[in-house]
């Protein structure tokens, strides 16, 4: 099947989603005063970055009664679309402890574990190359120092966010859960707040009996802490040209499970592949896996976090992160750890992989970007949680200086650049780009970049955009196991244990072309970890096909936005309710 221009196979970028980001998602005036909510600082997103910002700002305001009073009855509001803060938050996650220790200096690591968001310090670690479905080759840690985790803490970011939310609420924050931020309010070139989404509309958008219209939330400063593929973040980047002069952002998709196991795992394990991914460059596969030990210090349960991440610039349309994870679980290394255990949690999330060169400008008049919204992930080390917390702290301090002393919000950008965030991301600025040539061709140069701490290669390496990669229907899916419901699982049973609670008659929040070349339809069908996209059984094997969108299955991972569609906010309260991810 040729692309519309007649040259080669189709790419998702040939069929852009029916979206006008600036026209649809920016509101140019505020409602009348009596119809809007006024707050001091509005933070969009109740994840680790946004809540770190809330807590640090509230710590400073507690010592400044005059400014606290000037900010009004609601000095800080956190707007979170999930049922609880952390409900849509997912990561590996082995966290460097420093930033959280700085934020909550009166808490020990033993306190973290009692609060049940931390599950033990890393004392041992192993790395393996997996050449095939049976073998494993130990890799010396010295050869991949970016994976060094000794002394870090295994955490659940969803549980950490719930803890942070409780601390923020105790400090005076107003937490608005089940509230989607649907529009950015921009007046005279400045962000002055956000508009919350309507609730209680039917499938066709008609108001139902429980309909509640959205509300303008006016703020002196707005913080976009939406995580990966933030709806308003993308709109702000276009409106204020924040990505001009930067490399395009690229994305990865991670799928994770948590297992209760019979025997405790005594170390952190990473694998470098190439298996279960394909080594040949034509597939465009780059990724890796993890196994992390988790000890629930309250119940005594031994848990294991297992996951797989794959870059979203692959070419084989049958690539499925969820099914690759099920395939990975069949390796003897993994079966020896999980065998006889029970899966207790599942989730999926896209993450920004572009690193230093792809970070947008982090401030605009009236607003800031923090955490994953600003692309602050070290994909070479699989690390981002500590950067999220650090950026939130720096944002809170910059907002305080702006409100108290009239400093420009651009001071936040300088603070990030001079912090551990800027230093660490700069060192790995050119490590991932070579892998876009394929694992075998790119690994030597990527390894040189890591071992030289960024001195080689010199200059600025470019990215190609995920949705511009032409797709073909390959054979990656031939290796996927048939789900047995005990050890390997299908997508729909996985969505069920995510706690997804989207109404069956909710409006559709996903924008895609419904009639696309078979290659693109196959890519969406396989890619989505929640089984959102289907191809009718009687569809032709070649040419254009119709796509069915089961949007109520969606766990809002965001991968579709990287591969030819657009995820927009669902009704507040819809989506998963992650507990252990």
Secondary structure layout:
Elements: H1 21-25, E1 26-27, E2 37-44, H2 48-61, H3 65-70, E3 76-79, E4 94-95, H4 98-103, H5 109-114, E5 118-121, E6 125-130, E7 137-138, E8 153-155, H6 157-170, E9 174-176, E10 181-187, E11 190-196, E12 199-201, E13 207-212, E14 216-224, H7 231-239, E15 251-260, E16 268-274, E17 287-295, E18 302-311, H8 321-328, H9 332-338, E19 342-352, E20 363-364, E21 367-369, H10 385-405, H11 410-418, H12 420-427, H13 439-451, H14 491-497, E22 510-511, E23 515-517, H15 518-527, E24 533-534, E25 544-546, E26 548-549, H16 559-562, E27 566-567
Parallel strand pairs: 1-10, 2-3, 2-14, 3-9, 6-16, 14-21
Antiparallel strand pairs: 4-8, 5-8, 6-7, 10-11, 11-14, 12-13, 15-18, 15-19, 16-17, 17-18, 20-21, 22-27, 23-25, 24-26
Helix pairs in contact: 2-6, 2-10, 10-11
Describe this structure in words.
This protein is an alpha+beta fold. It has a domain at 36-87 and 162-248 and 356-427: FAD/NAD(P)-binding domain (3-Layer(bba) Sandwich). The strands form seven sheets. Strands 1, 2, 3, 9, 10, 11, 14, 20 and 21 form a nine-stranded mixed beta sheet that branches. A seven-stranded mixed beta sheet has the order 7-6-16-17-18-15-19. A three-stranded antiparallel beta sheet has the order 4-8-5. Strand 10 and strand 11 form a beta hairpin. Helix 2 runs parallel beside helix 10 and helix 10 (385-405) packs antiparallel against helix 11 (410-418). The two termini are 40 Å apart. The model has no long low-confidence stretch (mean pLDDT 95).
